[in-house]
Design brief:
Elements: H1 10-18, H2 26-38, E1 42-45, H3 52-63, E2 67-71, H4 79-82, E3 83-88, E4 93-98, E5 105-109, H5 116-128, E6 130-133, E7 136-139, E8 145-150, H6 163-166, E9 171-174, H7 180-190, H8 203-214, H9 220-234, E10 248-250, H10 254-270, H11 278-289, E11 294-295, H12 297-301, H13 306-316, H14 327-334
Length: about 325
């Protein structure tokens, strides 16, 4: 029996290569691909040893991009990320030494171990995609994706991420343990020679794919659906769920509405469509919104999570019927 031929679509080729190394973690890999296509950043929460670092490094190898890893520690300073000006004794002038944020895929490992000053420096480059050193502004390479990890089982020596910084992450993905079957394959694969990952696309190809995703059609009813979902986190009573209000101190920001649509467009592309569906929004709603809810002490006391609140909202807010038959006519009319 002949082996299966590699897929021909660019992002399928990338996933095919990454899965030569990474076992399982299908959700994490899909969200990373979505983030790359939608130009967003990802916060990953999971215990150590779940291949979070390897997933990002392997993805960088498959797209031919640069990869940098920063292990966040309490003694880190902003210059360790962004770079600084260094005096050159030979020339008698100051020269700029760029930091590790000047890369395509940046892994910020254990991000909640660094103090506020460092997190603020990362916040600027995530939002503005540029760094100011002295009086000169330097743009980071494109594409630029930050994948930050945090360990949920440790609290000593950590600094909770400010809500403003959490809001800059397009998605927060929760990574769990592998199944026994997956773990068997992981042990088998990691105790032998690991197959090398081939570069299957270039960063220029990725930029072209991002432009294709930008052109993905989104029906106005889908935008209205995203806005109603986010609005329900601010005023649960508006959807007949007033019992949720005591659990929410602050609802999701407008960035949630924007990112619901951006990620839905990217996911539609991954699924082989040039138009987004309500299911694309629903499939990513938890990842886009769970870190944007500020829960009350009452929620903590009653052990109510953001996912439980969002699950209730998703079950109540009616899903729109997107008229796919009219899509071509609408796009022609707008052309």
């Amino acid at each position: 029996m002949e082996p299966l031929a590699p897929p021909t679509k660019p992002m399928e080729q990338v996933l095919y290569e990454v899965k030569k190394v990474i076992v399982g973690q299908d959700l994490l890999l899909e969200q990373l691909i979505v983030a790359l296509l939608a130009r967003g950043h990802v916060l990953v929460e999971g215990v150590p040893g779940l291949a979070k670092t390897m997933a990002v490094k392997t993805l960088a190898d498959a797209i031919g991009g640069r990869f940098q890893r920063i292990s966040f520690t309490p003694d880190l300073v902003p210059a360790d990320l962004t770079g600084t000006r260094i005096y050159n004794q030979k020339t008698g002038e100051f020269e700029t030494s760029l930091g590790p944020v000047f890369t395509n895929l940046l892994l910020a490992d254990e991000i909640n171990r660094a103090p506020a000053k460092v997190q603020s420096a990362l916040l600027e480059v995530m939002q503005e995609r540029q760094v100011t050193i002295g009086t000169t502004t330097h743009a980071v390479p494109a594409p630029f994706l930050v994948m930050a990890t945090q360990n949920p089982i440790e609290s000593e020596g950590t600094y909770p991420l400010p809500e403003a910084q959490l809001d800059r992450f397009m998605m927060k993905v929760l990574v769990g343990y592998p199944s026994p079957t997956e773990e068997f394959v992981i042990v088998e694969r990691m105790t032998t020679a690991v197959e090398a990952v081939q570069k299957v696309i270039t960063v220029e190809t990725l930029a072209a794919l991002q432009a294709t995703v930008d052109a993905t059609y989104v029906d106005p009813a889908l935008i209205d659906y995203a806005v109603r979902l986010v609005g329900a986190t601010r005023n649960p009573g508006s959807i007949g769920q007033p019992q949720l209000a005591p659990y929410i101190t602050h609802g999701a920001s407008p960035r949630a509405s924007i990112n619901l649509i951006l990620t839905a467009k990217a996911l539609a592309h991954v699924r082989g469509r040039d138009y987004a569906l309500p299911q694309d929004v629903r499939d990513l709603a938890l990842d886009v919104m769970r870190h944007r809810l500020v829960l009350s002490y009452e929620a903590l006391a009653d052990d109510v999570s953001a996912d439980q609140i969002l699950g209730q909202i998703l079950s109540v807010v009616p899903v729109p019927e997107v008229p796919l038959n009219d899509r071509a006519n609408v796009r022609t009319a707008h052309a």
